Request: fold
Amino acid sequence: MDDAARNAHQSNLESLLFAYGEAMGIADIAAALGISDSDAREVAEHLGASYEALPERGLCLMRQDDSYRLGTKPENLETIERVLRQDFEQDLSAASLETLSIILYRAPVSRADIDAVRGVNSSFIVRNLLLRGLIEREQDAKGHHVFFYKPSFALLQLLGIANAGELPDFEVLNKKFDGLAQQSKEQEQRAADSIIPSSVSE
Reply:
């Protein structure tokens, strides 16, 4: 793989990991970028090295077994925790309420699907809702490195309902969120198809 192709794939991988918000296996990364597993591993390692080469960057590439995800540098933890504490002490923002509504009406739902409906990255908000005990997460039963989010029993109790099906217009909004997520995925796929090079390195 030449430098130009590797740099292009590296840029796409960085965007992909940021938007996905969870760990991605090398096979999934390769499929998303349209390259082989070995090339995907080379791109990921090159991305990690680029973060290490620039100490002023606030992100790092984390690796566990054969999966990768973006993370924040440990030395920035104090700043992040301060902001999280401030946000935790305040009332829920409009963005938090929007995210909570999606989880209520579409659970169990992945972070990727939440982002697809909202159109923006929701990792910070989802973490905030988890810390508040308003939502819970569970790992994909199929063994993938994917988590699904659902309302917590504490949230249902606060709302005075036994299950999400008792929410107003549940069936209508559930289908609407499904449609929005599917539409966003189709748009993302078309965008991905347009940026993946026509020639794939073997």
User: Anything to note?
Assistant: Residues 198-202 have pLDDT under 50 and may be disordered. The beta strands are 24-25, 59-64, 67-72, 109-110, 135-139, 147-151.
